Structures are given as structure tokens and as C-alpha cells.
Amino acid sequence: MHPMLNIAIRAARKAGNHIAKSLEKADSVQVSTKGFNDLVTNIDKEAEAMIIESIKSSYPEHCFAGEELGVIEGRDKECQWIIDPLDGTANFVRGLPHYAVSIALKMRGRIEVACVYDPMRNELFTATRGQGAQLNNQRIRASQPRDLTGCLIGTGFPFRAKQHTESYMNLLTSVFTDSADVRRSGSAALDLCYVAAGRLDGFFEFGLKPWDIAAGDLIAREAGAITTDFTGNTNYLASGNVVCGNPRVVKPLLAKIREHANEGMMK
Ligand code: 2AM
Ligand code: CA
Fold first, then answer.
1. Which of the ligands is closest to the CA of residue 84?
2. What is the phi/psi pair of residue 43, to 5°?
3. Total domain count for the chain?
């Protein structure tokens, strides 16, 4: 196993255990609002600090970009860890047990290793570039449907940009009509891993952040899926607009996005 993946897994498990432990004492979780419809808890921040401390003990010169603590520059500019300590915070604060720790390492502009850990189910999704993807050490592969018919598609609503609700709902209507059904889980990192494991056939969402996507994207691609932005290109980490799945699923999803998404959603 890639030594850096080992380091990522150790950090993700520590953070996941901290998150799981917090459930035993309800008053150990303090919720605050950091933006419109955007929650954070002390557990998010503590978990991120634990991840950074854990990785730094092996790689003190690396850089970090995390959801809660921002960018931490290190001397080694070629290595940056992209961290979401708790993807699915809105689920977590309600006791809805669907969230995960997401850690990816970007080296010279490319994601090299990734892990997403679901502490509620003890599911660890991992990938190293060029070496496939695993769930709890077992190789996983994305589904290979012929077209959208019969597909289960994951998505996320534009909770932060409700001005796009109408366009988004038109897109959703079209996807729902031509697929088997749609899921909205509240954790983009897990949605991408579920595409990797064949639990979902495809996924699309717009307005995501790099830390929601970075790890799950590598895991999905190493499982044989493709990821694009809304224009069919690969600028999704920057734009936050993601379509993922088998090319035979991504293609019709992109056609629907072209038809229904407004300009604001494409940016
Ligand atoms: P987060 O928990 O790390 O913020 C899915 O829509 C993505 O949006 C999730 O990965 C989640 O990441 C983020 N998100 C933020 N606020 C949300 C909300 N109110 N409802 C659903 N998802 C939210
Ligand atoms: Ca988060």
C-alpha cells in the first residue's frame, strides 16, 4: 500500500472515532452557523485538527487545505492534503447517521491517494492513483449500465443557491423521468464512493467545494467511473459542478444539464 494512503487512513480513523464518540454525549456537540444554511460544530473543527496533527507527525512540511481551518502552508508546496473532517454535517447535527471523513493528497496538482471513512458503518473507501479502489480492502467497481434506464442516480439540492431551484427542479424532473429513481443523501463524498461501489449508477451536483469532491472523485475514477464538470470537461474541483458515473450515464446526464441548467449553475 502507498505509505501516504496509510497515513491518510490512520488520520481518518482517528477523526471518525472522535465523531462516533461524540454521539455518546449529546451535550458534547455545539452547533453554530457559518453561513446561509451552512452548519459547523466543534466536532468538525476538532476532527480536522486531529487529522492535521496526525498527518503532520509524519509529514511536517506538507500543506493543508481543510473545510474548517482553511489553508495551512508548509515548506513542501508540492504536497497538499485536502480535508473534509465531516462531510454531511447537516445530517450529523440531526442524528441522521450518514456522513464521513474525507482526506485526499494532491501532489504536483494531481490527487494521488484518497480515503473516505464512514464511522457509522465502519466503511473505509480508499484509492491510490492507477491502482484501483477498495471498500474495506476489497476491490470495488462502478456499475456498467447501458443507459439511464434502470439507473439509481444520486444528487444534491442547491441548498446554498436557492435562486437556482426552478432550473434544478426541471433538471431533476428530466433525470427522474428517464432513470429508475433518485437519492439525495447529504454527503457528496459518500455519494461518489457509492458510485465507485456500484450502489449508485451516477451522481450530479453543483456548487460543491473541493474538499467534498477530492477524495471521492479519485475513488470513483479508480473504480472505473468518469467525473466531469457540467461542460463535460475536468474542471470540477474548481467549479464544484460534478457529474460522475459510467460514460453511458454521464453522457445523458450532461445532455440534460445542457438543456436545463441556467448560466449561473454552469459557472
Ligand atoms: P458538508 O457537510 O461538508 O458541508 C451535499 O449537498 C454537500 O453539501 C455535502 O457534501 C455537504 O458537505 C454540503 N452541505 C452543506 N450544507 C448542507 C445542507 N444544509 N444540506 C445538505 N448538504 C449540505
Ligand atoms: Ca464538512
1. 2
2. -70, -40
3. 2
